[in-house]
Amino acid sequence: MEMLNNKWIKARSHIGVIVTSTLVFLMVSLNASALQQSTLVDSIKQIKPSVVGIAMYAPIQSRSPQLLGTGFVVGNGKYVVTNYHVVAKELDPSIVQNYVALSGSGPSPKIHTMEVLAIDPVHDIAILSINDTLPAVKIASDELVDEGTSIFFTGFPIGAILGLYPATHQGIVAAIAPDINPARNADQLTVQMLKRLKTPFFIYQLDATAYPGNSGSPVFNSSTNEVIAVINKVFVSEGKEAALTNPSGISYAIPVRELRKLAETIDIKL
């Protein structure tokens, strides 16, 4: 009987250790999750003033700017980065069209007139100047981050029908791969696509959903709040409409080393 009691006491002690260890693990996990959430909240507050809407503005045609994509402020606060395809349309001087940056948040964002300074159609990057000074983001080094790195990006995926309300998405760097757009036949090959096939460069594949309005959004390293890339496209398998109704969840971004090369051509240090 005494032997059975000793075994029971040892068993209870062992169970107690397991239960205690499990509770400690759960508490540590919950605290880590809460800390990560708190850090993201603080990060968004920090970077939001540097993220702007990119729009076409023609006061003669419309009182409201037409939002085209997203951009972010760099350098000394007087430069904005976005995708080349966002500002590729030629302006019509007869109706006084301008590219503008929209800053702030809410139904009445501030409008900043911009001028295109440098473009890189192959890497889909453009740098513009603004007529005001805004808070600038920090740009990461040219070294590619590791796959699995936690990231987040902020932009305007739904547009600005009701006002300027930035949205943030988070995920990881899922892969680092050559930027090659597949074509079903030779007729679909463009000059830019042929250049990429000859000299492919590496881009980030992200495990996060971007939408058309996210074009030009800055991609941040969650650990440092530094910009590591620029969102430039999302994988669509069922046509453009499916990008909203049935998104793939696979987005792509251009590493900042391509941005830094473009900035150097106009003597801007990042």
From TrEMBL:
GO terms for biological process: proteolysis. Signal peptide: none annotated. InterPro entries: Peptidase_S1_PA, Peptidase_S1_PA_chymotrypsin. It holds the Pfam family Trypsin_2. GO terms for molecular function: peptidase activity. Keywords: Hydrolase, Protease. Gene3D superfamilies: Trypsin-like serine proteases. It comes from the Bacteria. The keyword Hydrolase applies. This is Serine protease. It comes from Glaciecola nitratireducens (strain JCM 12485 / KCTC 12276 / FR1064). The lineage of its organism: Bacteria, Pseudomonadati, Pseudomonadota, Gammaproteobacteria, Alteromonadales.
